[in-house]
Design brief:
By secondary structure, this protein is of the alpha+beta class. It has one domain. Helices cover about 55% and strands about 20% of the residues. Strands 1-2-3 form a three-stranded mixed sheet. A hairpin with a 2-residue loop joins strand 1 and strand 2. Helix 2 packs across helix 6. It is elongated.
């Protein structure tokens, strides 16, 4: 039997996801999960719900003024979320 180098748990999970063909969906869900990390606790406190539909992240915000302010920052948020995932998976963010 041939001896191999040890793999980390993360590497094993990534291999399993790649073998099933769900890596695109996995990356989209990771981008959705990274929302809290990217926007920080102050904005995340006003986030009620977030979900991904195709290549669009939908985010429900409770504060109307914050919702309006976030509209101006969508391009930067897209860039930061895609960087957190490691590749461009999101094409748009819709703030509700």
């Amino acid at each position: 039997m041939k001896k191999r180098e040890a793999l980390t748990v993360g590497q094993i999970i990534e291999q399993a996801i790649a073998e099933t063909g769900n890596s695109q969906e996995y990356d989209l869900q990771r981008a959705c999960f990274c929302w809290a990390e990217v926007v920080g606790p102050a904005i995340n406190r006003h986030t009620v719900r977030r979900w991904v539909d195709r290549d669009t992240l939908h985010v429900s915000i409770t504060s109307a003024s914050l919702k309006n302010e976030l509209q101006f920052h969508i391009p930067r948020l897209l860039q930061l979320l895609n960087q957190a995932v490691g590749r461009d998976v999101l094409k748009n963010i819709v703030i509700h």
